[in-house]
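Minutes, project check-in
Item: structure for the 303-residue chain
Input as provided by the requester:
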Amino acid sequence: MSNKDKTDTANKHAYLVMAHQRPDLLKKLLESLDDKRNDIYLHIDKKANEDMNPSLFSTNESSLFLTKRIRVNWAGYSQIECTLNMLEDAVRRGGYSRYHLITGGSFPLRNQDYIHSFFDNHPTEEFMDIDNPVPERVMYRYLFNESFRAQGRKARLMWQIREKYLDIQRRRGVDRFKKFNMEHKKGLAYWSITNGMASHTVANRKLIRDMMKYSECGDEVFMQTIAYNSEYRDRLFDKDGKTHGSLRLTTWPLEDNGIKRQNHNFTMEDKEFILNDKNSLFALKFEGSDGLKLIEEIKKSNY
């Protein structure tokens, strides 16, 4: 880990990286972000195997900060908690011009000169996907939302209880979100925001917990909702959801056209689709068998 002292953060970017597997991909990602203009905040899931030991990862130019490790569970509030922990750490250290949330299985589609130039030309805009809401995600209290992938007899019993409780709430017209008097939105869980938006989000951490603690997949709702109901709404790059406002490229456009990808991972068959994209700065995911090879092709063409 780099022990360099933090200097002026006003012109630097903070990368918030959530990782839980594939140390080979994480090392490639850190190499691509390793720039004196960046600080990196790394969270490694507490459930991760020993090959993800934090001591195995380092940088040369960037300062690398390890955030408190927690168990992160898909669809649970722990995803939001992890994100807020990293964001709060970064805001506390002070005043970055941009905060990027990405995963360890992601990769930048452009080099750091290009990325910094892009954001220098968009200093006040907030980049996140904004889409129509799915009310059910926040209306009801979802039991066992940290155990979504549990298996076996105990898991079946939990899901029977969960579904029964959801059915009761539906029949009674429950809407837990109504009391907040806010318009909720959703979108991709990953974004690039300004210091103002980051500070505003951290300041509303208790509100976010109250809104999202018992939600389902709330990580795709909380940032969009906080932004849309704040002064930063007018700074959203694409608040009408007509383009990829997050600057992230995913396999979903392919899958919408019937081209299935296992676990939403890019493959070498998607090389031209990726290289022809002119609107994205990052792509996810590369956790398939030829992900590393595809990353090398991206570097060869775009860096």
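Outcome recorded: Residues 137-180 form one domain.
No further action items on this chain.
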